[in-house]
Amino acid sequence: MTSSTDKQASFATPDNTPQLQAFREVVESRRSVRRFTDTPIPDDVLTDCLRLAMLAPNSSNLQPWEFYVIDDADNRKRAVKNCMNQNAAKTAARLIAIVARTDVWQDHAQQILREYPDTPVPKKVKDYYNKVVALDFLRGPANVVSAVKWSATQVFRRVKGPIKSPYYTFEDTKNWATNNASLAAENLMLALRAHGFDSCPMGGFDEPAMKRLLDLSGDQHIIMMIGAGERADNGVYNTQFRFDQEQFVHYV
Q1: What are the residue ranges of CATH 3.40.109.10 in the chain?
Q2: What is the pTM of this model?
Q3: Which positions fall inside the Nitroreductase domain (predicted)?
Q4: What percent of the chain stands above pLDDT 90?
């Protein structure tokens, strides 16, 4: 019988671990594909890709994301136009809007407590979602709570040391939601590749027009559009390259 230590050691093997080889193949073969074939993405495949997307790491498991799969023919036509008629949108088998939400943290905190897998819910978990999360996000009328939090944070740093900065402004909360939704978007693109399909994340779109199409509120922010499908022979426009790793990696 293989022990847990043996299993951990096998995962740490640098070059001959099947999981690592498969992961490398997925990451290294992923490209931003601009043209797709007419091959459809089966619903069960897309459902699994979205499930894997939602396994992305996210702050406090608050999951501030949404995925709008635009399948209706008329909506699809308008969405392609809103994507500036890019080939990645026009030829995609599925077109998906990745949306970050700034208004769900409180509801999701309470949903976590209702659906928490361990019962009874530990007191520290209740305290975290009822108190810590609330304090982190609350701004108050005219940001009055934010001003108090800012002052308290500065005092804490001077007296006791490092402390995480809470979210003082709407932009802070928007950045938080955007970061989390972006992690899910990357999972989605890698999942599509693992299923044998490809994708193209698009930042070139008319967000106000797309938000009207999807009937989104001011607390829902489209961070990217993703076109997905089977890679066409002429779907990749350029040879892939990256700058030297040493330019970006710093050991301090």
Answers
A1: 31-102+175-234
A2: 0.90
A3: 28-229
A4: 88
Superfamily of domain 31-102+175-234: NADH Oxidase (3.40.109.10)
The DSSP element (H or E) to which 66 belongs, if any, is strand 65-69
pLDDT (0 to 100) of residue 3? 47
Residue 124 token pair: 């520290």
Are 110 and 104 in contact, with CB atoms under 8 Å apart? no
Q: Which residues contact 40 (CB under 8 A, 6 or more apart)?
A: 93
On whether the CB atoms of residues 61 and 173 are closer than 8 A, the answer is no
CB neighbourhood size of 8 (10 A): 9
Q: What is the pLDDT of residues 120-164, one digit of tens each?
A: 999 999 999 999 999 999 998 988 899 999 999 999 999 999 989
- pLDDT of 7 > 60? The answer is no
